[in-house]
Amino acid sequence: MDFDFSPEHELFRKSVREFCDKTLAPFSRKMEREGRMPDSVIDGLSKMGLFGLAISPEFGGAGADAISAGIAGEEIGRGDLSCSTAVLYLVPVSWSHVLNKFGSDLLKGKTLPKIASGKAFLGIATTEAGVGSDLQNMSTTARRDGNEYVLNGEKMYISGIREAKEQMPESGGYLVLAKTGGDTGHNLSFFYVPINTEGISTTLLEEMGRRGMSTGGFTMKDVRIPAENLLGEENKGFYYAMEGFDYARAIIAAVCTGAAMAALEAGIEYIKQRKTFGQPIGRYEGVQFKLAEDFARVDAARLLAYRGLWLFEKSQHDNKISRFTVSKAIAEAKMIAPVVAFEAINDALQWFGAFGYTLDCPLEMGLRGVRSYMLAEGSTEIMKIILARELLGKEFIAYR
User: Fold this and answer.
1) What residues does each domain of the chain span?
2) Does the reported pTM lie above 0.70?
3) H and E: helices and strands count for the chain
């Protein structure tokens, strides 16, 4: 067992942290108030090559490993407590991995270079208004018509609608999951759908947090896309989507621990200085014990996140590691990280007293931001179901 990051990883972390300190931290409150991702942030992430981490060099990416993607996520979480920038980063990275792995050469050639350069956004669209993790009950359909597929349906609670439609120079698109093979079994297929395709209408939603990054939905009415926009094979989209979700969930766990550690570090500095009854509040056991507990839990979640990323990377090169082994490890990290991060940030906010409840204190952004990850990319309850499934066996799955 080796818990050391490689020298290359450490150098990468240093460069990403310097970028985040300079480009993200000073503007996180501004983007939260204005409800818009600054062009300078998008441009900065592009110049750092972060959008292309999971994309092969032949398509303009870095071809980096999953550990590097986690490092970038953790540092972005530290730099922008609102978690808005984390969404802008982790969604294209995790799902470009899927597009890079399962997309046709023609599809990859026309999409991945734009995504890697930050000129186009890539998102994920599986959720519907009444369907979250129960993908088999989705209503979106796709049918083959000659050299095209025709899609109908509605996707909701989707990240990056405004950025893909209006802000990115080359627009962008989504990996859309749709039914293609009847009503039984895994009859879902994955498609790349440009957001500005004729027949698509979009809507925006207002969220309680992560306001610098848009969330919304879109309706597809007889939307036609080329047949080469199908990823892999028909009716295997469920499996491709699960791989993407695993990657995204592991990065999310790293993001949450980054935000929580930043909040605890800010809290540590404050409790050393803030005095009551003639001494710093950091000398009181009631504060010390909370700090110790929060730090240990966040550190444990961080280790789980990197174990999940390590297993995910190893599984890409070693077919002896099953998808279920990876999913189990990542479900542990995703189940724990947002919860312990929320509690740690909440405790740190408490130490700041009345100031912590004002908009001048950045910790409240973190509280709202990490709360979203108890829902996004699979809720905490779904992570528990995945973990219990692997512990008890598939015969104990209640929904079958």
Assistant:
1) 7-121, 122-229, 237-396
2) yes
3) 12, 9
Which residues lie closer than 8 Å to 50 by C-beta, 6 or more apart? 16, 72, 89, 93
Question: Are β-strands 172-179 and 215-226 bridged in parallel, bridged antiparallel, or unpaired?
Answer: unpaired
Chain segment 386-399, per-residue pLDDT in tens: 999 999 998 998 87
- pLDDT tens figures, 80-96: 999 999 999 999 999 99
Listed residue (103, 125, 128, 126) closest to 113, CA to CA: 103
Residue with tokens 């973190």: 366
Closest C-alpha among 158, 83, 95 to residue 126: 158
**CA 16/CA 25 separation, integer angstroms:** 12
Tokens of 105: 């050469």
CA 45, 50, 51, 56 torsion-angle sign: positive
Residue 185's pLDDT band, with cuts at 50, 70 and 90, is low
CB 388: neighbour CB atoms within 10 A? 14
CA distance 252 to 376: 9
H/E stretch holding 324 reads helix 323-351
- In this structure, are residues 118 and 224 in contact, taking their beta carbons and an 8 Å threshold? no
CATH H superfamily, domain 122-229: Butyryl-CoA Dehydrogenase, subunit A, domain 2 (2.40.110.10)
Q: Active-site residues: which are they?
A: 377
Could you tell me if 255 and 77 are in contact, meaning their C-beta atoms sit under 8 angstroms apart?
A: yes
Q: Which of 185, 177, 313 is nearest to 242 (CA)?
A: 177
Answer yes or no: same fold for 7-121 and 122-229: no
Q: Which residues neighbour 110 within 8 Å (Cβ) at sequence distance 6 or greater?
A: none
Nearest alpha carbon to residue 107 among 238, 254, 228: 228
- CATH number of this structure's domain 7-121, picked from the four choices 3.30.420.40, 3.50.50.60, 3.40.50.720, 1.10.540.10: 1.10.540.10
Q: In whole angstroms, give the CA distance from residue 125 to residue 193.
A: 10
Q: Tens of pLDDT along 281-316?
A: 999 999 999 999 999 999 999 999 999 999 999 999
d(CA 99, CA 91): 12
The domain made up of 237-396 has a fold known as: Butyryl-CoA Dehydrogenase, subunit A; domain 3 (1.20.140)
